[in-house]
C-alpha cells in the first residue's frame, strides 16, 4: 500500500540523438511536475485532484503537445482534447475540439462534475467553458512560430506519403511525421493512487500535427487513452487510431480484473501483444501502489515515484536518470 | 464455412405504456431490417457491408432515434453520431456532431476506409462528408413534429425537476423511454437530466466466413447540451467488434461509457473464457452499476444473444438455422 504516481509526456520515435536543448527542458518539466504530484500526495490530496493538478502543469509547459504546446491541425488551428476519470466511482469527463481553453483537463473535470453528460465537444464544449468561467485565451495564443514550423514539416512529410493507402497511413503516421524526432509526440498524462487507495487518471493532448479538422484521437475516449477503476489507473499515448481499436487503457484493467494478471503483466501484455510495435506507451498505477511504464516505441517521456522512495525520470528504455 | 447470424436493435428503455400501434410499427420496422440483413447475408455480402446497410435503413426511417427522427438538442437542432467496426482487423470509424449527413453510419465507414483517422466530429466531419460526396440534406429533414413535441415536454419537465418537485406530466402517449425516465426521477450521472430518447439503433452481424462487424447510430439524448457526445461513436463503449464477437449497445450513454460495455462483452469472452450469452449476462449484471442499458451481440461461431436491464428493448435477431425473433419486452 501507499501512494504512487506516474506521468508521461508522450511516446514515439524519440531519437537517441535528440539535441540536449530539446531533451533537457523536457526532463526538467517531468522532474518539476513529478515533484508537484509527490508533494500533493504527501499533503493527502485525493488522487483525482493530484492528476488534474499535474496535468495542468504539463499543459502549461510549452514543450509537450497539450495546452500551451498543442500542435496544429491541417488548417493551422488548435483543437485540444482531454479526459479524466475517478477510479472509485468510475465517474469521468472528457472534452474535444477546444480552441481557447487554457487547461483542457480542468474542463473535462467540470464536465464530469457539473453536467449530466460525460463528454462535450467543439462549440458546445467552448460554450460550457464560458458558462463555467474557466480561463480562456484567444485561439491565436496557441499558434506559435514553432507550431507552424512543425505543421510545415508534417505537410512536407505527408507529400512523401502519397504512395501509401490510407489504411497503411494509420499505422505509419507517427514514424514518418516525426522526422525531426520532436514534432508531434508529447500527449501528456498522469495516474495516481493516494494513501487511501483512491485511483485516478487524466490525459491531455493537442492531437496529431497536421490532423484533419475535427479529428478525435484516443485521449478523450474513455477506455482507449484513459481509464481508472478500483484496481488501477491508466493513461496511454501514441498513435491514437491504434490505441482506440485496442482499447488500451481499459484492457490493462480488464486483464487484471478478468485474467488475474498483475499490473506489470497486464501493461506488458497490452503494449506488446495488442498494439503494433512503435505505436503506443502507457503509464499505470495499481491500488497496491505499484507503477508500470511500458512502451513499444523508441522512447517515452516519463516519470514516477512511490511512497517507499523509488523515483525515476527517463526517456529511452535503458537510460533512466535516477533522482 | 461458419454460420451467419444477425441482430438489430432500436434502443433499450421502452415506455411501459407504449400504445399497441407503436409497438406493431416498431416490430414491423425491425422485421423489415432483419429481412434486409438476412437476404444480404444469403447473397454473401460481408458482415461490415451488412451492418452498414441495415443501419442505413434504420437511419432513413423516422421511427427510431437516428438519422431522420433523431432526438433534438436544447436548441432544437439535430446532432447525430455513429460508429462502425470490422472485427477481423479491428478497423473502425466514428463520427459525431453531424447536422446534414443523411446516413451517419456510412460517413463513419468512410472515416474508416478513406481517412487516416478513426474519428471525425462536427465541422471537420461535415467537411469530410462534402469532400466524399455523401448525400447531405438540410437539418430540418431530420426534425420530426413528434420530436419537437417531445423537446417541449422535456424542457417543461426540466423546469419542474430543477424546482425539486416530482414531475407528473402525462407522457404516456409520447415516444419510448420518456415515461421510464420520469419514473426514475430524471437522474443521470447523479444530476437531473432531460427526458432521454434511448432509441439508438444498431446492428451486429457474423457472416458465413466468421467475420464479425458492428455498427451503432443515434441522435443522442432529447434536450441534450450542444456538443454532447454519448457512447454510440465510442469504440469499446457503444460499439465493438473483434475476431470473436461483435457488440452494439444502447441506453444511458454515460453508464455505457463508464462500463466500456461493448469491449467488456468481448473482454470477458477473451480473458475470462465466458460464452456469448454468459458474457452479456455478466456485463449487464456487473458492469452497469446503477445504469440502464441493453446490448445485442453475435459470436464468430454464429451465436446471437442480447441482454438488457431496462423496461424492454426493441430488438430482432436471426440465425442461419432458421431461428428468428422480434421483440420488445422481456
Automatic annotation (TrEMBL), chain A:
<feature type="active site" description="Nucleophile">
    <location>
        <position position="187"/>
    </location>
</feature>
<keyword id="KW-0645">Protease</keyword>
<comment type="subunit">
    <text>Heterotetramer of two alpha and two beta chains arranged as a dimer of alpha/beta heterodimers.</text>
</comment>
<keyword id="KW-0378">Hydrolase</keyword>
<dbReference type="GO" id="GO:0006508">
    <property type="term" value="P:proteolysis"/>
</dbReference>
<dbReference type="GO" id="GO:0008798">
    <property type="term" value="F:beta-aspartyl-peptidase activity"/>
</dbReference>
<feature type="binding site">
    <location>
        <begin position="215"/>
        <end position="218"/>
    </location>
    <ligand>
        <name>substrate</name>
    </ligand>
</feature>
<dbReference type="GO" id="GO:0004067">
    <property type="term" value="F:asparaginase activity"/>
</dbReference>
<feature type="site" description="Cleavage; by autolysis">
    <location>
        <begin position="186"/>
        <end position="187"/>
    </location>
</feature>
<dbReference type="Pfam" id="PF01112">
    <property type="entry name" value="Asparaginase_2"/>
</dbReference>
<protein>
    <recommendedName>
        <fullName>beta-aspartyl-peptidase</fullName>
        <ecNumber>3.4.19.5</ecNumber>
    </recommendedName>
</protein>
<dbReference type="InterPro" id="IPR000246">
    <property type="entry name" value="Peptidase_T2"/>
</dbReference>
<dbReference type="InterPro" id="IPR029055">
    <property type="entry name" value="Ntn_hydrolases_N"/>
</dbReference>
<keyword id="KW-0068">Autocatalytic cleavage</keyword>
<feature type="binding site">
    <location>
        <begin position="237"/>
        <end position="240"/>
    </location>
    <ligand>
        <name>substrate</name>
    </ligand>
</feature>
From TrEMBL, chain B:
<dbReference type="Pfam" id="PF01112">
    <property type="entry name" value="Asparaginase_2"/>
</dbReference>
<feature type="active site" description="Nucleophile">
    <location>
        <position position="200"/>
    </location>
</feature>
<dbReference type="InterPro" id="IPR000246">
    <property type="entry name" value="Peptidase_T2"/>
</dbReference>
<keyword id="KW-0378">Hydrolase</keyword>
<comment type="subunit">
    <text>Heterotetramer of two alpha and two beta chains arranged as a dimer of alpha/beta heterodimers.</text>
</comment>
<dbReference type="InterPro" id="IPR029055">
    <property type="entry name" value="Ntn_hydrolases_N"/>
</dbReference>
<dbReference type="GO" id="GO:0006508">
    <property type="term" value="P:proteolysis"/>
</dbReference>
<dbReference type="GO" id="GO:0008798">
    <property type="term" value="F:beta-aspartyl-peptidase activity"/>
</dbReference>
<keyword id="KW-0645">Protease</keyword>
<feature type="binding site">
    <location>
        <begin position="250"/>
        <end position="253"/>
    </location>
    <ligand>
        <name>substrate</name>
    </ligand>
</feature>
<feature type="binding site">
    <location>
        <begin position="228"/>
        <end position="231"/>
    </location>
    <ligand>
        <name>substrate</name>
    </ligand>
</feature>
<keyword id="KW-0068">Autocatalytic cleavage</keyword>
<dbReference type="GO" id="GO:0004067">
    <property type="term" value="F:asparaginase activity"/>
</dbReference>
<protein>
    <recommendedName>
        <fullName>beta-aspartyl-peptidase</fullName>
        <ecNumber>3.4.19.5</ecNumber>
    </recommendedName>
</protein>
<feature type="site" description="Cleavage; by autolysis">
    <location>
        <begin position="199"/>
        <end position="200"/>
    </location>
</feature>
Amino acid at each position: 500500500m501507499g501512494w504512487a504516481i506516474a506521468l508521461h509526456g508522450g511516446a514515439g520515435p524519440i531519437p537517441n540523438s535528440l539535441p540536449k536543448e530539446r531533451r533537457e527542458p523536457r526532463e526538467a518539466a517531468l522532474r518539476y511536475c513529478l515533484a508537484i504530484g509527490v508533494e500533493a500526495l504527501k499533503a493527502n490530496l485525493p488522487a483525482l485532484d493530484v492528476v488534474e493538478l499535474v496535468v495542468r502543469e504539463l499543459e502549461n509547459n510549452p514543450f509537450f503537445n497539450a495546452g500551451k504546446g498543442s500542435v496544429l491541425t491541417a488548417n493551422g488551428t488548435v483543437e485540444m482534447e482531454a479526459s479524466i476519470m475517478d477510479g472509485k466511482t468510475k465517474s469521468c469527463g472528457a472534452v474535444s475540439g477546444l480552441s481557447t481553453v487554457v487547461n483542457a483537463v480542468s474542463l473535462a473535470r467540470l464536465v464530469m462534475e457539473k453536467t449530466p453528460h460525460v463528454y462535450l465537444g467543439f462549440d458546445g464544449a467552448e460554450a460550457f467553458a464560458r458558462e463555467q468561467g474557466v480561463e480562456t485565451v484567444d485561439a491565436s495564443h496557441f499558434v506559435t512560430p514553432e507550431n507552424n514550423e512543425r505543421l510545415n514539416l508534417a505537410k512536407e512529410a505527408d507529400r512523401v506519403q502519397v504512395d501509401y493507402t490510407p489504411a497503411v497511413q494509420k499505422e505509419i503516421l507517427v514514424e514518418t511525421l516525426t522526422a525531426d524526432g520532436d514534432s508531434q509526440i508529447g500527449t501528456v498524462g498522469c495516474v495516481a493512487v493516494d494513501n487511501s487507495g483512491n485511483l485516478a487518471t487524466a490525459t491531455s493532448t493537442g492531437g496529431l500535427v497536421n490532423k484533419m479538422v475535427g479529428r478525435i484521437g484516443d485521449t478523450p475516449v474513455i477506455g482507449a487513452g484513459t481509464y481508472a477503476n478500483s484496481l488501477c489507473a491508466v493513461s496511454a499515448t501514441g498513435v491514437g487510431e491504434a490505441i482506440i481499436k485496442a482499447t488500451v487503457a481499459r484492457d490493462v484493467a480488464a486483464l487484471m480484473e478478468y485474467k488475474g494478471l498483475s499490473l506489470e503483466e497486464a501493461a506488458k501484455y497490452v503494449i506488446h501483444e495488442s498494439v503494433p510495435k512503435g505505436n503506443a506507451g502507457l503509464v499505470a498505477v495499481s491500488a497496491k501502489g505499484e507503477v508500470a511504464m511500458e512502451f513499444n516505441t523508441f522512447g517515452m517521456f516519463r516519470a514516477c515515484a512511490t511512497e517507499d522512495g523509488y523515483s525515476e525520470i527517463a526517456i529511452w528504455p535503458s537510460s533512466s536518470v535516477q533522482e | 464455412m461458419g454460420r451467419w447470424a444477425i441482430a438489430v436493435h432500436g434502443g433499450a428503455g421502452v415506455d411501459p405504456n407504449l400504445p399497441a400501434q407503436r409497438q406493431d410499427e416498431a416490430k414491423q420496422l425491425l422485421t423489415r431490417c432483419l429481412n434486409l440483413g438476412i437476404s444480404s447475408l444469403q447473397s454473401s455480402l460481408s458482415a461490415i457491408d451488412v451492418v452498414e446497410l441495415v443501419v442505413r435503413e434504420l437511419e432513413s426511417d423516422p421511427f427510431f432515434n437516428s438519422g431522420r427522427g433523431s432526438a433534438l438538442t436544447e436548441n432544437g437542432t439535430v446532432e447525430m453520431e455513429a460508429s462502425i467496426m470490422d472485427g477481423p482487423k479491428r478497423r473502425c470509424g466514428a463520427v459525431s456532431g453531424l447536422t446534414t449527413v443523411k446516413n451517419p453510419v456510412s460517413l463513419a465507414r468512410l472515416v474508416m476506409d478513406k481517412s487516416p483517422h478513426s474519428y471525425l466530429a462536427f465541422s471537420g466531419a461535415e467537411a469530410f462528408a462534402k469532400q466524399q460526396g455523401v448525400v447531405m440534406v438540410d437539418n430540418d429533414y431530420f426534425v420530426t413534429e413528434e420530436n419537437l413535441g417531445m423537446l417541449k415536454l422535456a424542457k417543461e419537465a426540466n423546469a419542474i425537476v430543477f424546482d425539486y418537485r416530482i414531475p407528473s406530466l402525462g407522457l404516456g402517449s409520447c415516444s419510448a423511454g420518456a415515461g421510464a425516465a420520469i419514473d426514475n426521477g430524471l437522474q443521470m450521472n447523479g444530476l437531473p437530466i432531460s427526458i432521454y430518447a434511448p432509441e439508438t439503433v444498431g446492428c451486429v452481424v457474423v457472416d458465413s466466413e466468421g467475420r464479425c462487424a458492428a455498427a451503432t447510430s443515434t441522435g443522442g439524448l432529447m434536450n441534450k447540451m450542444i456538443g454532447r457526445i454519448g457512447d454510440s461513436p465510442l469504440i469499446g463503449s457503444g460499439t465493438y467488434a473483434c475476431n470473436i464477437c461483435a457488440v452494439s449497445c444502447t441506453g444511458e450513454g454515460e453508464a455505457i461509457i463508464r462500463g466500456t460495455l461493448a469491449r467488456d462483452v468481448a473482454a470477458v469472452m477473451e480473458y475470462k473464457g465466458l460464452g456469448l450469452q454468459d458474457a452479456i449476462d455478466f456485463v449487464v449484471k456487473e458492469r452497469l452499476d446503477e445504469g440502464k442499458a441493453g446490448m445485442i451481440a453475435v459470436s464468430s461461431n454464429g451465436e446471437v444473444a442480447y441482454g438488457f436491464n431496462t423496461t424492454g428493448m426493441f430488438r430482432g435477431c436471426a440465425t442461419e438455422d432458421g431461428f428468428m425473433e422480434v421483440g420488445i419486452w422481456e
